[in-house]
Design a protein that fits this description.
The protein has 18 helices and two strands. With 442 residues, the chain is mainly α. It has one domain. A two-stranded antiparallel ribbon has the order 1-2.
Length: 442
């Protein structure tokens, strides 16, 4: 009898295969700007960061890698953000318009789609939104870079394309050594980038729901309502907190005009939620601003999109659970709907496991280095949440530390539940239940 690969394992193996192929391509002499071969740790770390749409880097993307190497990196984070199983579903649709059940199950696992009947529709939405958004953003950025910043058409077009793909996929890679800091006062660059980050980060199931019911918010799914509400709260809260904390910081927002402070306060808030771009020096932020980043990065964006983190939906369900407990309600409710007990358990599991991974990884990195704990925590959460922001310590980490970050990026991208499920050898239902008791909590 032919063995059937579990969908969760297929997703994990698909990402591993992409990482291996990407690493080998980046080790080719043609990928290095000087014609030499990149060290395996540099190629491997870069490939993992690209496939996991993180953006952490140990070398300068623009100067270290050749045009071929940069194309490989862009293709890797394009594939990582688009989704390997989603790509397989689209290929099946183009070939015979009827993807096999196994492919649909794997795509459902990767995209967190609620029903198998939605797979083809969601896959098409992923393709259309990805292609259209990146094409429009490429055009806007290329025109601005040519007419506003003096780049020739070839440079402007390549920079526009690379950053458009990086922004929509929440990858955070930039071909500029200083990130986007040279555009700190240019709203015609930063606003389109923020729009792409948000669009890619709210999740494709939400976009699918909005496409079919955009004119009827009352019939949006609970997931869509929670994701959009949570996203607005986090963006507004992060904007206000970071603007106030950095308003007078002479190394970040202090020297800017009021309009530029508002622009960059918003950009900080948007980028902190797994995008990884920086228009100001992240290492120059105050300790309090780093703490706000811990929170925003850890939560991340919407499920089944290009964003990372524990996801807005997870945080929303836990918040509703706490509110219900405080009010003494037996059910966890929102927008006239009840959240199932299984989803509550899953949210708790994601939060607990994620917190344990971040805490353990922080302890390990503290053991491996002499770096301050505030910077270590920032780096760990940034890697696990697929954010890619850094206070500047990535290149200072030893090989063991870099390998730890690659593991964090990988787990964060495939999802803690998917990763854990892929490690489980099998599922079994217990034929009995123990008597119930009520241990004291709190």
């Amino acid at each position: 009898m032919k063995a059937v690969l579990h969908p969760a394992r297929a997703v994990v193996l698909g990402f591993l295969l992409a990482i291996v192929v990407g690493s080998l391509l980046l080790m080719l002499p043609a990928a290095h700007s000087t014609g030499g071969s990149a060290p395996w740790i540099v190629a491997f770390f870069t490939a993992v960061s690209a496939v996991c749409v993180t953006g952490l880097a140990v070398v300068d993307t623009g100067s270290y890698w050749s045009p071929f190497g940069q194309v490989v990196i862009m293709l890797l984070f394009q594939l990582g953000g688009f989704g390997l199983m989603t790509a397989a579903t689209l290929l099946g649709l183009m070939v015979n318009r009827s993807p096999r059940l196994r492919t649909r199950l794997m795509t459902q696992t990767e995209t967190r789609t609620l029903g198998l009947g939605d797979i083809s529709s969601v896959a098409k939405i992923v393709f259309v939104v990805t292609f259209t958004s990146q094409l429009m953003l490429t055009a806007v950025l290329s025109l601005r870079l040519h007419f506003g910043h003096g780049l020739d058409w070839r440079q402007a077009s390549w920079s526009g394309l690379f950053h458009a793909a990086s922004a929509f996929n929440n990858a955070g890679f930039s071909i500029y050594a200083d990130g986007l800091t040279r555009f700190v006062g240019d709203g015609l660059i930063l606003f389109p980038v923020m729009a792409a980050i948000i669009l890619g980060g709210i999740g494709f199931p939400v976009l699918h729901d909005l496409r079919h019911r955009w004119h009827d918010p009352r019939h949006w799914s609970l997931h869509t309502k929670l994701t959009l509400t949570g996203t607005l709260i986090l963006l507004a809260g992060g904007f206000l907190a970071l603007l106030l904390l950095e308003y007078d910081n002479p190394r970040t927002l202090g020297p800017l005009s009021m309009a530029e402070k508002l622009l960059n306060g918003l950009f900080l808030s948007v980028s902190a939620r797994t995008a990884g771009f920086n228009a100001v020096d992240i290492g120059a932020l105050t300790q309090e601003a780093w703490a706000v980043h811990y929170f925003l990065m850890f939560i991340g964006g919407g499920s089944a999109g290009t964003a990372g983190g524990v996801k807005v939906g997870t945080a929303a369900v836990l918040a509703l659970l706490v509110i219900a407990e405080i009010r003494g309600h037996s059910d966890t409710e929102a927008f006239g709907r009840r959240v199932s007990a299984s989803m509550q358990r899953q949210a708790i599991t994601v939060m607990v496991l994620s917190s344990m991974i971040v805490a353990l990884s922080t302890v390990i990195l503290l053991r491996l280095t002499d770096l301050p704990i505030s910077r270590i925590i920032f780096e760990v959460i940034s890697a696990f949440s697929s954010t890619g922001l850094s206070t500047g310590i990535t290149a200072e980490l030893p090989p063991a530390g870099l390998l730890l970050l690659t593991l964090l990026m990988f787990i964060g991208r495939v999802g803690i539940i998917t990763f854990a499920t892929s490690l489980v050898l099998g599922e079994r239902r217990m034929p009995y239940r123990y008597p119930e008791e009520h241990p004291i909590v709190g």
